[in-house]
Automatic annotation (TrEMBL):
Transmembrane segments: none annotated. GO terms for cellular component: nucleus. This is DDE Tnp4 domain-containing protein. It comes from the Eukaryota. It is found in: Nucleus. The keyword Metal-binding applies. Residues 2-132 form the DDE Tnp4 domain. PANTHER family: NUCLEASE HARBI1 (PTHR22930:SF206), PTHR22930.
Length: 132
């Protein structure tokens, strides 16, 4: 079973989508999520901006290469890269470590998520959501 999650800068789960079969590609799950619809409609982060240094910029989410590039989604550059794009990818990867750590804490705290469950298919998403 696939868990798609949005994690804030402090490693807290702020949005989850669970219940899709494990063979579903991340992108398909994302396109069909309520999160994607709300982001597309501009209602997930309505008019919120942050200031980095002296630059005001919109709030964005960070994704891996499987996700589509969108105005509200940053993903790494692909292909042959110059040094500035490599530096961008490195810094983006460091930021995404917050997400990796959040999933690590989730699996460390709830070890039962790492093994096959005898629960029904309808109960498993409820348990995963409770763990998040």
């Amino acid at each position: 079973m696939v868990l798609q999650a949005l994690v804030d800068h402090k490693g807290r789960f702020t949005n989850i989508n669970v219940g899709w079969p494990g063979k579903v590609h991340d992108t398909r799950l994302f396109w069909n999520s309520g999160l994607f619809r709300r982001l597309q409609e501009g209602i997930y982060f309505p008019d919120q901006k942050i200031t980095v240094g002296d630059v005001e910029m919109p709030i964005v989410i960070l994704g891996d290469p499987a996700y589509p590039l969108m105005p509200w989604l940053m993903k790494p550059y692909m292909g042959a890269l110059d040094s500035s794009k490599e530096l961008f990818n490195y810094r983006l990867s460091k930021c995404r470590m917050v997400v990796e750590c959040a999933f690590g804490r989730l699996k460390g705290r709830w070890r039962s998520l790492l093994t096959r469950s005898d629960l029904s298919e309808t109960s498993i998403p409820i348990v995963i959501a409770a763990c998040c």
